[in-house]
Write a structure and sequence with these properties.
Layout: H1 3-18, H2 25-32, H3 36-42, H4 46-70, H5 78-92, H6 94-102, H7 110-135, H8 143-163, H9 170-187, H10 211-224, H11 228-242, H12 248-258, H13 264-274
């Protein structure tokens, strides 16, 4: 395991047991079996480590949502599958959610606010795509309001996994929210977030996927990759980023090869944005 990843995994375990404020850098390094100097080669401070952990969690959420929406055929279960995917992830990672939602010593830095706003815009784009795929243009007049409602469902019901110890039925919750969403889409007559207010949601997102960013990420992942199969996929994608000669189907196949490497979901998400792939 890479040293930086070891630090992050160990810190998460310690934060879950004793909270962020009560966990020192020394405790993290002792648990990792490394020196403080080795820690500070990876992170300038504990605050930077916490910021990267939040950043990683948001990347996971965004890439999972995007993949779910773009790789699922539209049918009567599309909304159910969307909610089921989201809340299965919340259930799986509820301990991490408890760390960050319950710890009131987190530093709310401008950098953290900017990151959250950035990922929020990406989530908005994905949910709007879901709405358009499920309902077409039949509800264009209320799609922004429906987006706000879906985000409200996600936030409110995710708190159940963080703040309660009751076993929760993800399937039942997903069916209930899919039904609620359909009822709103079919019967809402007074949307609040109209097209005139869409700038609150549908504002442009500065793209992180220029060629320099992509080639740097692909190179660093290729250096750390285990197995010739993964390395070859990463190197082929790097070549393709500079000289686009492959078909979309081949590029998609190469991207699928790397989704399950460490941080591979986010890299796959960025690659699909860069190559402008719909699925």
């Amino acid at each position: 395991m890479l040293k930086k990843q070891l630090i992050m995994d160990t810190a998460l375990e310690l934060f879950a047991k004793q909270g962020i404020a009560s966990t020192s850098v020394q405790q993290i390094t002792e648990s990792c079996g490394i020196s403080k100097g080795a820690f500070y080669l990876s992170f300038k401070s504990k605050e930077e480590l916490v910021l990267e952990l939040i950043d990683n969690a948001m990347k996971q959420l965004v890439s999972d949502l995007d993949y779910q929406v773009k790789h699922t055929q539209v049918n009567e279960d599309s909304l159910y599958m969307f909610y089921e995917s989201v809340f299965s992830s919340f259930k799986k990672h509820s301990d991490q959610g408890k760390i960050f939602m319950n710890d009131h010593h987190l530093s709310v830095s401008p950098e953290l606010i900017n990151k959250i706003q950035y990922y929020d815009k990406l989530i908005n784009s994905t949910i709007l795509l879901l709405i358009e795929k499920v309902y077409g243009n039949s509800i264009d007049h209320l799609k922004y309001d429906l987006l706000y409602c879906i985000k409200g469902f996600l936030k409110t019901y995710s708190e159940l996994f963080v703040f309660t110890k009751i076993p929760l039925d993800v399937s039942l919750l997903s069916k209930s929210l899919a039904e609620k969403t359909n009822l709103l889409a079919m019967h809402e007559t007074i949307p609040f977030i109209t097209e005139e207010l869409s700038y609150l949601i549908d504002s442009p997102v500065e793209s992180p996927v220029d060629i320099d960013t992509i080639t740097t990420l692909l190179s660093s992942h290729a250096e750390a990759a285990d197995g010739d199969y993964i390395k070859e996929s990463l190197n082929l994608l790097k070549e393709q980023a500079s000289n686009q000669t492959m078909s979309a189907a081949i590029i998609n196949g190469l991207i699928e090869n790397i989704r399950h490497i460490p941080n591979g979901k986010w890299l796959a998400y960025l690659l699909r944005q860069y190559f402008q792939l719909e699925s």
